[in-house]
Design brief:
Elements: E1 13-20, H1 24-33, E2 40-44, H2 50-54, H3 57-74, H4 93-103, H5 110-118, E3 122-125, E4 127-132, E5 135-139, E6 145-156, E7 160-162, H6 178-182, E8 190-194, H7 198-209, E9 213-218, H8 229-241, E10 245-248, E11 252-257, E12 269-273, E13 279-282, E14 284-287, E15 291-293, E16 332-334, H9 345-363, H10 384-387, E17 390-393, E18 398-403, H11 406-411, E19 416-422, H12 427-432, E20 439-445, E21 450-458, H13 465-474, H14 478-481, H15 494-501
Parallel strand pairs: 1-2, 1-6, 2-3, 6-16, 8-9, 8-14, 9-10
Antiparallel strand pairs: 4-5, 5-6, 7-15, 11-12, 12-13, 17-18, 18-21, 19-20, 20-21
Helix pairs in contact: 1-9, 3-4, 3-7
The chain binds flavin-adenine dinucleotide (FAD) and nicotinamide-adenine-dinucleotide (NAD).
Length: 504
């Protein structure tokens, strides 16, 4: 593998593979694509490491952790008395923000640049756009441009951008997006959040812990709409217990930010609400209404892909090898949030491993047998994206789910049966904390006797999830799962109880 760009009698820089975007996904795709001797360059416009490292997973989880630890202590007599009960803020704000800063590496990407260098991947700083098949123009911060040519493949790993709903005055009110929330250096006294998805519930929890009076404006009638309905019931109750004002079926119809001489453009935000027409006043408003793939401005029209809405960019159709459809020559790939399949880091990195391996096998100097695309669970195909996607929502209680919900399994035509068990009745959960509540549910395929999906709601259920993911991906028959004996007294014993409930 060469670390140098190859020049072809012009001042163009030529690599075998060019990856656009050095988030977690771009880094992984580049690393794996380079394993069979291909030269790889990654183009990055902001910080190497992307959203997850600096404005998403890591800082948000760092903000949530102190509150979770305190709540765990409050449930254990012997420790509970040492923890203040009703203090607001619940956490030590300065230390929480300081630890968050450190998890965000102080928004400095030096260590990730070092990693790229060690992996033999060339970093090109600037904003890339396609100017034709396999050709990209990169514009640097100083406005200079250069052309990169990919001999073999281009991977789009450009991530996603938040959507700002078309509500009168909202964009002009300069709302927070998840970036401002996860990187906040000050805690607003009153925070309004628009949305009822993952960002909304995690940030409602974190800012409530930090001392904000949080109001959650949820358009629909439940939180986390893609999950089992009992998840929303548990979260609404627990957020309300934390003091969050959860308003289901409520939308802002107009938003205005006051501009005052003292506060300048950072005055109060007034949100007029539908139905009652009442006005909610907050110091900040966080928009957490979903994200869309960052494909605008990428020059995809130069390779034949057009967008219905040019501001949004084209939606990319990818096959299970993550190859973009509708482009001749089989050279364009996409992975992660940009590919529009599943917007989580772990699933994006999985797609990146697939795309990197496909490129290494197709174009590299590989001894490996030809890419083995026909097999359903080949490592050259992102099969898990369809029915085996895991996700953890780091609220209190935590929500951990994988695979199909009951409704999705029925829609997919399976013969479905669900079994449910109260987590509070498991010895391991009881030892961990008094009065613990929670629910575990399996969605079963009656015909094959396998697990299609699992949902856990309760404290510390995140670590239960991987066992469920293995059961779903492995399509392990229930009578074989019976022989996977959970240790006593652990929370995992809920697996035994679920299987007993299923009739074993
Ligand atoms: C608040 C929040 C919390 C989250 N928490 C979790 C979590 O706990 N767990 C989890 O699994 N997922 C979480 N996610 C989702 C996760 O952050 C994303 O799925 C993940 O970051 C996607 O990675 P990516 O590499 O595809 O995109 P990104 O991380 O967005 O990286 C894309 C990179 O491409 C660069 N780029 C874009 N266009 C160009 C261009 N034209 N030229 C050059 N560079 C370009 C960008 O600057 C960026 O660095 C969270 C998301 C949010 C918003
Ligand atoms: N722990 C994690 O894995 C984690 C944490 C945070 C974010 N993420 C990822 O980040 C992505 C973005 O998260 P998100 O919460 O922004 O999106 P989301 O899709 O999870 O939720 C969007 C919410 O906004 C609501 N909404 C949409 N349009 C609206 C409108 N016009 N007005 C009012 N409400 C509206 C939806 O009903 C939904 O409740 C998700 O795909 C998620 O997977 C993951």
């Amino acid at each position: 593998m060469t670390h140098e760009a190859r020049t072809d009698q012009t001042d163009e820089l030529t690599y075998d593979v060019v990856v656009v975007g050095a988030g977690a996904v771009g880094e992984n795709a580049a690393d794996r694509a380079g394993r069979t001797g291909l030269s790889v360059a990654v183009v990055e416009d902001e910080l190497v490491g992307g959203e997850c490292s600096y404005w998403a997973c890591m800082p948000s989880k760092a903000l949530l952790r102190p509150g979770a630890v305190l709540e765990a202590a409050r449930r254990v007599p012997g420790a509970a008395g040492l923890v203040p009960q009703d203090r607001v803020p619940r956490v030590d704000v300065a230390s929480t923000l300081g630890r968050r800063d450190s998890f965000a590496s102080q928004w400095d990407d030096a260590s990730q640049v070092e990693w790229l260098d060690g992996a033999g991947i060339t970093l090109v700083r600037g904003r890339a756009r396609l100017v034709g098949p396999r050709r990209l123009e990169v514009t640097g911060a100083d406005g200079s441009t250069r052309t990169l040519v990919a001999r073999c493949a281009v991977v789009l790993a450009t991530g996603s951008v938040p959507t700002i709903p078309d509500v009168d005055g909202l964009a002009a009110a300069l709302p927070w997006t998840s970036r401002e929330a996860t990187a906040a250096q000050d805690v607003p006294r009153r925070l309004a959040i628009i949305g009822g998805g993952v960002v909304a519930v995690e940030m409602a929890t974190a800012f409530s812990d930090l001392g904000s009076a949080v109001t959650l404006l949820v358009r629909g009638d439940r939180l986390l709409p893609g999950t089992e309905p009992f998840v929303s019931d548990a979260l609404v109750a627990s957020l309300r217990d934390l003091g969050v004002d959860v308003r289901l079926g409520t939308q802002a119809t107009s938003v205005r930010r006051e501009t005052t001489a003292e506060a300048g453009p950072a005055g109060e935000v007034h949100l007029r609400l539908d139905g009652s027409g009442s006005v909610l006043v907050a110091d900040e408003v966080l928009v957490a209404a979903g994200r869309r793939p960052a494909t605008a401005g990428l020059g995809l029209d130069t390779v034949g892909l057009t967008a219905d809405d040019p501001d949004a960019g084209p939606h990319l159709e990818v096959d299970d090898a993550m190859q973009v459809q509708g482009v001749d020559g089989g050279w364009l790939f996409a992975a992660g949030d940009a590919a529009g399949r599943v917007a989580t880091t772990h699933q994006g990195k999985y797609e990146a491993r697939v795309v990197g391996d496909v490129i290494a096998a197709r174009f590299g100097d590989s001894d490996e047998a030809a890419e083995d695309g026909a097999r359903a669970w080949s490592r050259f195909r992102a099969t898990a994206d369809h029915e085996a996607v895991p996700q953890v929502v780091f609220t209190r209680p935590e929500v951990a789910a994988v695979g199909l919900t009951e409704a999705a399994a029925r829609d997919a035509g399976y013969t479905v049966r669900t079994v449910r068990y109260d987590l509070g009745s498991v010895a391991g959960t009881a030892v961990n904390g008094d009065g613990t509540e929670g629910t575990a549910q399996l969605v079963l395929d009656e015909d094959r006797g396998v697990v299609l999906g699992a949902t856990f709601v309760g404290p510390d259920v995140a670590e239960l999830l991987h066992a469920a993911t293995i059961a779903v991906v492995g399509q392990v028959p229930l009578d074989r799962l019976w022989h996977a004996v959970p240790a006593y007294p652990t929370v995992s014993e809920v697996w035994l109880r679920l299987l007993e409930t299923a009739g074993l």
